[in-house]
Specification:
heterodimer, A: six-stranded mixed beta sheet, four-stranded antiparallel beta sheet, B: four-stranded mixed beta sheet, elongated
């Protein structure tokens, strides 16, 4: 049985096709990432899958149940991270966790939720006194109080400082160790690469790539990436037409070259540098990443 | 059931931890009562007439002094007596001369002058009769009949209670509008919680607070103004009915508004005129004729009327049956509209 099964899901807002024929399956115990820029349809997908939004077309099964036909069977077994932590602003963190726990047939002990989300020291603080990052962690915690089988986290780390992000990664890794299914949306590619067993890249309401992060990268790139700061390249046209360079991508910060033959590229770049087309002071060689995959598939960077 | 208990506790904690909420629910009605009581509550036995006399005969003043209606001060000269009258020390000045009694008064005290004129005439007549050797054959005897006397504060206290319960009911729905506006209610739809429970727990807490307010206002009324504590608990039924009506009206307004600002505006528009036109603070007879119809349309009038009668014993203005029917009508209509047009999102 799939934890989540989505077939040909569509949700239109008038002429806007927020989700336009999306299909994927998430097996039990997997950490699945839905990856895409803002406005790509990630939140709409999560809300239709969890039954918060009515879909226009398609089939959705969560743990074998349709969330619209059988909402109670679904809701008691999934946890969704939402902006509901400040339901009662003058309840403490601990009281809020206990309150939400009372909604579920099975509960995770409140102390465990506090420990998981790193809010132990804030247990007796009123919710309306929490910082943005702490509220975010609490809202993740509220998705876990039910000791549920599938956890949906919508942009759990956006707006968090690096340290808070890392501690949330730990939460997700703990859930994976517990055998929970995690469905997570993000626009941080490094996060998806590090945490997710599989990712689906969504853009303009459609899934444009789906698979294990490593597979997606090797499928689209056997090349290595070479980055040169944009300011050190005088003539970008000079880089095209060099046989050792398979692709060139230029943005405001840097020029990225993809190549199968690193040694030859350095020879070629050396010649260009001698002729004054570019400088080779700050050159970086790296493996291709999901970011490169997204760029190749859409022609844009994910945070544009 | 477990979720419901947790929700009720959460509502209570959330409300009682907010100073503003505490102020509006519990301090404001008391402060309002104190101010109103101090400003309008000065009352008591009708005050005695302050009378200055200049007596050139000597007998009449002594007789006058026996009347418990009058406090008599002897003056030597009419000019000084009149100065004191102008200064407001006396209500009236009597100048008694041979065969002539002059009564000086100011326009403000015309009524007292009239009363005293009758009193003086009969006194002088009686004295004359006695001098002639007659005794009056017909005596006037005063008999005190006990009818309940209601002070301004007695009238006012049930009104404050009615007002407080109305405000609690109407403004209470704003919490819900705010949760709805911030999409918290919508998002709760992803949890197994039945959202009705959230609403019912809120209503239950509000009704509980209503009874708490009732106890507080009655206690304060007794402590500060010796307003009688209701003898029979039947008024509690009216507290329940009135609170339910205004809670229902509050959610009805919430159903027809989108934002917290518009809900607040509409509630103010509803509650402000109601406060002043429902005759809860002063008898409707004090209102201009042209406005008399309005109280007859407002639920607060009937709520106040029933509370005055069942708490203090003041005769009802509309009759308890009418109070009941009209409050039930408002409750029914507003409940129907609130349910019919209810929006979770």
């Amino acid at each position: 049985m799939w934890a989540v099964l989505v077939e040909e899901l569509r949700k239109y807002y008038g002429p806007v096709k927020a989700v336009d024929g999306v299909s994927f399956e998430v097996p039990l115990g997997e950490v699945f990432g839905l990856l895409g820029p803002n406005g790509a349809g990630k939140t709409t997908t999560v809300e239709t899958v969890t039954g918060l939004l009515r879909r226009d077309q398609g089939r959705v099964l969560v743990l074998g149940f349709d969330p619209l036909m059988n909402p109670s069977a679904v809701k008691s077994r999934i946890g969704v991270q939402l902006q509901i932590a400040h339901l009662f602003p003058r309840l403490t963190v601990l009281e809020t966790i206990r309150l939400f726990g009372s909604f579920y047939p099975q509960r995770r002990p409140a102390e465990e939720v506090l420990a998981l989300t790193g809010l132990g020291e804030k247990a007796r603080v009123f919710v309306d006194k929490l910082s943005g990052g702490q509220l975010k962690r609490l809202s993740v915690g509220l998705a876990l109080v039910g000791n549920v089988e599938v956890v949906f986290l919508d942009e759990p780390t956006s707006g968090l400082d690096p340290q808070a992000r890392r501690s949330l990664w730990e939460v997700i890794l703990t859930l994976r160790r517990e055998g929970k299914t995690v469905f997570l949306t993000t626009h941080y590619l490094d996060e998806a690469e590090k945490l997710c067993d599989r990712v689906a890249i969504i853009d303009q309401g459609k899934i444009i790539a789906l698979g294990k992060p490593r597979d997606l990268i090797t499928e689209h790139f056997v090349e290595k990436a070479v980055e040169i700061p944009r300011s050190e390249v005088r003539e970008t046209n000079a880089l095209t037409g060099i046989p050792s360079i398979t692709r060139v991508s230029v943005d405001d910060e840097k020029v990225t070259l993809y190549t199968l033959n690193l040694a030859q590229v350095f020879v070629d770049l050396g010649q260009l540098a001698e002729r004054g087309y570019l400088a080779l002071r700050n050159i970086v060689v790296r493996e291709a990443t999901l970011e490169d995959v997204f760029l190749k598939l859409t022609g844009r960077r994910i945070r544009d | 059931m477990k979720a419901f208990t947790y929700l009720v506790l959460a509502h209570l904690k959330n409300a009682f931890r907010d100073r503003m909420t505490l102020f509006w629910f519990f301090v404001f009605p008391i402060v309002f009562m104190l101010i109103f009581g101090i400003v309008f509550g000065r009352e008591g036995a009708p005050s005695a007439f302050m009378v200055g006399t200049v007596d050139e005969e000597g007998e009449t003043t002594a007789t006058l002094g026996k009347s418990d209606l009058l406090r008599v001060f002897q003056e030597g000269e009419i000019s000084s007596a009149l100065r004191a009258l102008r200064a407001g020390k006396y209500d009236l000045v009597i100048h008694i001369q041979k065969g002539k009694v002059m009564l000086y008064y100011s326009a403000q005290n015309a009524g007292k002058a009239q009363a005293l004129e009758g009193h003086l005439k009969s006194m002088l007549l009686e004295a004359e009769l006695r001098r002639e050797g007659h005794t009056p054959t017909t005596m006037v005897e005063k008999i005190l009949v006990e009818i309940p006397h209601f002070r301004q504060m007695d009238y006012f206290l049930p009104g404050i209670l009615a007002m407080a319960l109305m405000q609690l009911g109407l403004f209470g729905s704003l919490d819900f509008v705010s949760l709805r506006e911030r999409k918290i209610i919508r998002h709760l739809g992803a949890t197994p919680l039945r959202r009705e429970l959230l609403l019912w727990s809120e209503i239950m807490v509000r009704m509980g607070v209503s009874f708490l307010q009732t106890g507080l206002i009655i206690t304060a009324g007794w402590l500060f103004f010796r307003v009688q504590v209701p003898e029979s608990p039947s008024f509690l039924f009216w507290v329940l009915l009135g609170s339910a009506t205004f809670v229902s009206l509050g959610y009805c307004i919430a159903s027809f508004t989108k934002t917290i600002e518009s809900a607040e505006g509409i509630i103010q528009m509803v509650q402000f005129p109601m406060m002043f036109l429902s005759g809860i603070f002063f008898p409707p007879e004090m209102m201009p004729e042209s406005l008399r119809l309005i109280p007859r349309l407002l639920p607060l009038s009937y709520f106040g009327d029933a509370l005055r009668h069942t708490m203090i014993g003041i005769p009802t203005q509309f009759g308890l049956t009418n109070d009941l029917l009209i409050l039930l009508g408002w409750l029914g209509v507003s409940f129907f509209l609130a349910v019919r047009f209810f929006r979770w999102e």
